[in-house]
């Protein structure tokens, strides 16, 4: 997953281990520096290509998840192109990560490729490092969108895979026709 020689921080390794041990299905990474919601893949299929659309097999699901967040965010959903993040208005406030800019080693790509967890990245504001007094406003701008996004956990595959005796089957592979990405059952 990481390029040769790439140093993975101990805390990143710990999060990766945690993600593999608990069957999370939905997550979001909060960043600063822009006002947009991105979704995988963040790494271009063609590493020499910048700003290249690189969809996952679950493109429709990721767009739905990103839109659920963006549409519930009072500023991202504002149609003014003159505001922070206004260059994403025509895209509905969302973009495929690699189409915006490609980078390797992102958690959203890791989650999709190595766990059952679908992760979006939320750029919560145009300030990369907001001042302490700005955090209250940023929280209130994102609170409803975060709650709306969390409710999306009820969409998609859910249920219990069991044997003929009703015992749950751990690590059963579930395939959806037409989507080349399987998920597995938890404990």
Verbal overview:
By secondary structure, this protein is α/β, with parallel strands linked by helices. It has 2 domains: 134 residues, Aminopeptidase (3-Layer(aba) Sandwich), CATH 3.40.630.10; 30 residues, no CATH class. It is built from 5 helices and 6 strands. The strands form 2 sheets. It has a 4-stranded mixed beta sheet, with helices on both faces. Strand 5 and strand 6 form a beta hairpin. Helix 2 packs across helix 5. The longest helix is centred in the last third of the chain and has 20 residues. The chain is globular and about 60 Å long. 28% of the residues are buried. Belongs to the peptidase M14 family. One of its GO terms (cellular component) is extracellular space. This is CBPZ Carboxypeptidase. GO terms for molecular function: metallocarboxypeptidase activity; zinc ion binding.
